[in-house]
Design goal:
Elements (H helix, E strand, L loop, with lengths): L3 E6 L6 H6 L2 E4 L2 E4 L2 E4 L6 H10 L5 E3 L3 H12 L4 E6 L7 H12 L5 E5 L4 H16 L4 H13 L1 E7 L3 H6 L3 H8 L4 E6 L6 E7 H18 L6 E6 L3 H14 L4 E6 L2 H7 L4 E6 L2
Parallel strand pairs: 1-2, 1-6, 6-7, 11-12
Antiparallel strand pairs: 3-4, 3-5, 8-9, 8-13, 9-10, 11-13
GO molecular function: lipid binding
Protein name: DegV family protein
Pfam family, one: DegV
């Protein structure tokens, strides 16, 4: 039986134990801060990145993995005849999946590699990757794994709270709309990402708006609690508050697995300090 290997990028939210247990290959993105370039997860940690981001003069710049690195990884994974499924962050956020496609062509292994746009990032991407990796270990075919991932994508949800719009504006992620609301005092925005497209869902002022956001998301989880097995809570720099949010989800349904972890530099760069997201898939 042909082995199937799973590949993803470093914006994904997975624990070291998950990566090791399911033999998932992570291809790192790069980050440049004040003229110095780092390889995500290799020579800079998530916590160190946030510290440097807060101290940096300019907005950090993020880049997809080089095509050369992708070629090397893909050649290594396919050398023994294995099939590879690559699941990457949304194309609307990064050119990573396009770089992977070019690398597959250069490596000449198009018949061995399938690439999937997760249409999200972070833990939502991670849950797709985990599903694929578990299926692969269970002996599922490439076609069965793809069908499973595509089904999960239909039920995935991202709810993000951005409390400081500075990085979003500098990065140009939301265009003129964000620039206009940012001129108001203490404006925060709630972001959703339907069909892989990031957009403002609501905007409001101060901590009261963030509290209402939390209550609404908890209400959504309550309504769907029997169809949600996993929730990811990812943050830039507010771990204590996020643990409290996780406790409230466990009160709704103790059987829901809640993973609370700091987000990747790729997300933190654009979301800015204080931002956090709640991600899950409704089955």
């Amino acid at each position: 039986m042909t082995k199937i290997k799973i590949m993803t990028d470093s914006s994904v939210q997975l624990t070291p134990e998950e990566i090791d247990r399911y033999q998932i290959t992570i291809v790192p993105l790069t980050i440049s801060i004040d003229g110095k370039t780092y390889i995500d997860g290799e020579d800079i940690s998530r916590s160190d990145f946030v510290k440097k981001m807060k101290e940096s003069v300019e907005l950090p710049k993020t880049s997809q993995p080089s095509i050369g690195r992708f070629v090397d990884v893909i050649k290594n994974l396919t050398a023994d005849g294995s099939k590879v499924i690559g699941i990457f962050l949304a194309k609307s956020l990064s050119g990573t999946i396009d770089a992977a496609r070019q690398a597959v062509e250069i490596a000449g292994v198009g018949d061995q590699v399938t690439l999937i746009d997760s249409e999200l990032t972070d833990r939502a991407e991670g849950l797709q990757v985990l599903a694929a990796a578990k299926d692969a270990q269970a002996g599922k075919t490439v076609e069965e794994i793809i069908a499973h991932v595509e089904q999960l994508k239909k039920g995935q949800e991202l709810r993000m709270m951005v409390v400081d719009l500075k990085n979003l504006i500098k990065g140009g992620r939301l265009g003129a709309l964000t620039g206009k609301v940012a001129t108001l005092l203490n404006i925060r925005v709630e972001l959703h990402m339907p069909d892989g497209q990031l957009g403002v869902f609501k905007k409001g002022r101060g901590k009261k708006f963030s509290k209402a956001f939390d209550e609404q998301v908890l209400k959504e989880i309550e309504e769907k609690k029997d169809r949600i097995t996993d929730v990811g809570i990812s943050y830039v720099d507010t771990p204590e508050e996020m643990e409290l949010l996780a406790d409230r989800i466990h009160e709704i349904n103790p059987s829901i697995n809640v993973l609370v972890r700091q987000t990747s530099p790729i997300v933190a760069t654009h979301a800015g300090t204080g931002a956090y997201a709640i991600l899950y898939i409704v089955k």
